[in-house]
Specification:
It is a single chain. By secondary structure, the protein is α/β, with parallel strands linked by helices. The protein has one domain: Spore Coat Polysaccharide Biosynthesis Protein SpsA, Chain A, CATH 3.90.550.10. Helix content is 35%, strand content 22%. The strands form three sheets. A five-stranded mixed beta sheet has the order 3-2-1-4-9, sandwiched between helices. The protein is globular, with a radius of gyration of 17 Å.
Length: 247
């Protein structure tokens, strides 16, 4: 008997980024044979482009802006799908990443799956990372990041895929993080729950890191506030103690 294809929901949040959203949705329509549904959250007022695509697009308009985690949690609450994907609007596709990610998520010990991330010139991006420490977090904030780690404790939030049941069971993203570290914190909770972070080597996406916190003071402040929250959190202390115990 042929296994039924998983139902996949893609959550995209636009902050006045209609042009980027159009490129991403066009990429999905062009390259992806895996059936998807899209939840597009409009986080600040904007005029939407034409949303006529060969897959359903549900639009949610926020009365007031919300943070990264809160927006994707709200999207996860309204979908009817087996796989829930969080995707930034500035991601570009040249192939279908969803099938490979869904295969990884068939493994019961996988809590989150992510693609390989490259820049627009094909250069590797540091999207998969080791558990941070305050010192290396500071280095990342003020210096150019290094190449992606081979060992993976967490993956960056520009593209993450979860079994919907798993995402809901762990409570999704912590909305106390307005921006930054919510992806790391969620991966840590999945690790504590006995699940692993996996990267699909045959799924590749394009994303050029914006490093906004280095250029805009408000984002820098959010970055610092989120880092302090994370390093003081029980989640961080518990996972770090567990990893030390295995050393």
């Amino acid at each position: 008997m042929t296994k039924e294809a998983p139902r996949i929901a893609v959550s995209i949040v636009s902050h006045g980024q209609g042009a980027l959203v159009t490129h991403l949705l066009s990429d999905i329509a062009r390259f992806c044979r895996t059936p998807v549904q899209v939840v597009l959250t409009i986080n600040k007022p904007e005029v939407l482009p034409d949303l006529s695509y060969p897959f359903p697009v549900s639009v949610v308009r926020n009365a007031a802006p919300r943070g990264f985690g809160a927006n994707h949690n709200a999207a996860a609450a309204i979908i009817d799908a087996d796989v829930f994907c969080v995707v930034n609007p500035d991601v570009r596709l040249t192939s279908d990443p969803f099938a490979s990610l869904a295969v990884l998520l068939d493994e019961p010990d996988v809590g989150v799956a992510a693609p390989v991330v490259v820049g627009s010139r094909g250069e590797a991006q540091d999207s998969r990372r080791r558990l941070p420490t305050p010192l290396n977090a500071l280095r990342r904030l003020i210096a150019r990041p290094q190449a992606a780690d081979e060992a993976v404790d967490w993956v960056a939030g520009m593209f993450m895929a979860f079994r919907t049941t798993t995402f809901r069971a762990v409570g999704g993203f912590d909305p106390a993080y307005h921006l930054y570290y919510e992806d790391c914190e969620l991966c840590c909770r999945l690790r504590i729950a006995g699940l692993r972070v996996a990267v699909a080597s045959d799924a590749v996406i394009i994303h050029d890191g914006q490093r906004t916190s280095r250029r805009r003071p408000r984002y820098f402040l959010w970055h610092v506030q989120s880092a302090l929250r994370f390093f003081r959190s029980p989640t961080y202390r518990q996972l770090r103690a567990r990893l030390r115990g295995r050393a």
